[in-house]
């Protein structure tokens, strides 16, 4: 089966990793603006205020704020049908709880969407992508407070009204299931963690899962709002999907793999698609002594605010073992620990490269939900440099993308309803997981480095031209490999 004629090929980004202009145009401080650079295993810090002796990658990032016209023109040159981006909450409401929005912030995204329209590029917009306003963290303990539900719905209602004629594809929260991991405390939930390293945040699972519940309710409320007032909208969820394989065929390994995949990859999608908590989550909470407090009406809101389509990120698969000795000798990374899969290659950042796993994932998700799907993040992070001629010969990225997209085509032949794919990332941006520029994902190289230096000039990589040809032939150029 070939790709549908209206398939949404494109690229993806996130405001806190790409936009920059952190203190321009009336923007307020976001939690991401208080996470310093440096490797996540050594010096990367969460701070209460901006400190002069630390470098904060989100402050300039790769400066979409000043380069959006240039970048969108490059996307058009590549033939993008879609551009996935996020709106920075604190650019619209600087504290997150303001009554009136920041007009200069609203106008910035008007300009971005108008530029996309000029080239026939469909925006796919994430409402909240790891950018909780810092004020809400400091004064409300982020999403642990129910008040934040109303602040978020006010924000969403504002941008729905403003961009109702410019955006039709919306995603309520980026990788909402990040909250099932300790890393979600500050990054996605905005919980107060004090001065801490990025990787070693203090954790209270009760508080964390209660905050996640508030995000579920908020998501359902804005989906319900969109359905009532803007029937032209398509409202989606977004899950970081990391399949778990049993390391061996021992039943204990098989059981552990299912349990971990349920709670970390399936749980949030189950809530947002079916409108209720799944049975296995209730059992997990009982075992962990976690009690989710439902306010009156929460169950009804969840049931009424189910999403229209399902989006997810896919980078890797994990192998797990019930044998602590085997697990101890494996590798560990953000998103889960695991054992090296002997059948797979891995990146320099220990991510297992598994194209076939993408086909398995697509089939599993579609079998579970029977909803249209879009892959909104998929790519490979690699250290790379410009040649003297301003080129990047990234044959490894082309190979990675070709193999994964080929498995997407097979999933379509299996009968999966897949309507779009946006590469992570369209342009080099700051890595969310490591805070580094050297971990480059883009089709377009940006002259920016971990020490903050660089001209910010853009250079098309070999993969840019390869993807351009792929889009022009709607995937048929895969047959040339």
TrEMBL record:
Q: Under the GO molecular function aspect, what terms does this record hold?
A: hydrolase activity
- Short name of one Pfam family: Glyco_hydro_1
- The coiled-coil segments of this chain are none
| Family annotation (InterPro entries) | GH (IPR017853), GH_1_N_CS (IPR033132), Glyco_hydro_1 (IPR001360)
Keyword terms of this UniProt record: Hydrolase
Family membership, please give it: Belongs to the glycosyl hydrolase 1 family.
Q: What is this protein called?
A: Glycoside hydrolase family 1 protein
């Amino acid at each position: 089966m070939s790709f549908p004629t209206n398939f949404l090929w494109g690229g993806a980004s996130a405001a806190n990793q790409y936009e920059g202009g952190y203190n321009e145009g009336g923007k307020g401080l976001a939690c991401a603006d208080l996470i310093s650079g440096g490797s996540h295993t050594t010096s990367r810090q969460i701070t209460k205020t901006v400190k002069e002796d630390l470098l904060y990658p989100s402050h300039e990032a790769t400066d979409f704020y000043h380069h959006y016209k240039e970048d969108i023109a490059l996307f058009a040159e590549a033939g993008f049908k879609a551009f996935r981006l996020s709106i920075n909450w604190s650019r619209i409401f600087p504290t997150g709880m303001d009554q009136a929005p920041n007009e200069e912030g609203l106008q910035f995204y008007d300009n971005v969407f108008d530029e996309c329209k000029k080239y026939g590029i469909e925006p796919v917009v994430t409402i909240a992508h790891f950018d909780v306003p810092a004020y809400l963290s400091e004064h409300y303990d982020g999403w642990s407070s129910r008040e934040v539900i109303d602040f978020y719905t006010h924000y969403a209602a504002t941008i729905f009204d403003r961009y109702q004629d410019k955006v039709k594809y919306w995603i309520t929260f980026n990788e909402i299931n990040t909250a099932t991991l300790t890393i979600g405390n500050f990054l996605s939930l905005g919980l107060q963690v004090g001065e801490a390293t990025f990787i070693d945040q203090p954790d209270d699972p009760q508080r964390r899962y209660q905050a996640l519940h508030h995000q579920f309710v908020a998501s359902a409320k804005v989906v319900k709002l969109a359905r009532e007032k803007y029937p032209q909208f398509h409202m989606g969820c977004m899950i970081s999907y990391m399949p778990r394989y049993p390391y061996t065929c021992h039943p204990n390994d098989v059981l552990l793999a299912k349990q971990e995949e349920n709670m970390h990859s399936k749980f949030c999608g189950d809530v947002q698609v079916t409108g209720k908590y799944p049975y296995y989550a209730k059992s997990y909470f009982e075992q962990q002594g976690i009690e989710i407090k439902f306010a009156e009406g929460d169950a009804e809101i969840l049931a009424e605010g189910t999403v229209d389509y399902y989006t997810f990120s896919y980078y890797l698969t994990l192998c797990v073992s019930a044998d602590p000795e085997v697990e101890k000798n494996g590798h560990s990374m953000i998103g889960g620990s695991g054992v090296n899969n002997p059948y797979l290659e891995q990146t320099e950042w220990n991510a297992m490269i598994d194209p076939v796993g993408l086909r398995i994932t697509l089939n599993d998700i579609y079998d579970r939900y029977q909803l249209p799907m879009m892959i909104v993040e998929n790519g490979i992070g690699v250290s790379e440099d410009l040649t003297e001629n301003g080129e990047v010969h990234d044959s490894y990225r082309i190979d990675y993308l070709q193999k994964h997209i080929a498995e997407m085509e097979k999933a379509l032949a299996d009968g999966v309803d897949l309507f779009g794919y946006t590469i992570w990332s369209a342009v080099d941006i700051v890595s969310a997981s490591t805070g580094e520029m050297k971990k480059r994902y883009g089709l377009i190289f940006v002259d920016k480095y971990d020490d903050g230096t660089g001209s910010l000039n853009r250079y098309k990589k070999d993969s840019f031209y390869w993807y351009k040809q792929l889009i022009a032939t709607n995937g048929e150029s895969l047959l040339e490999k």
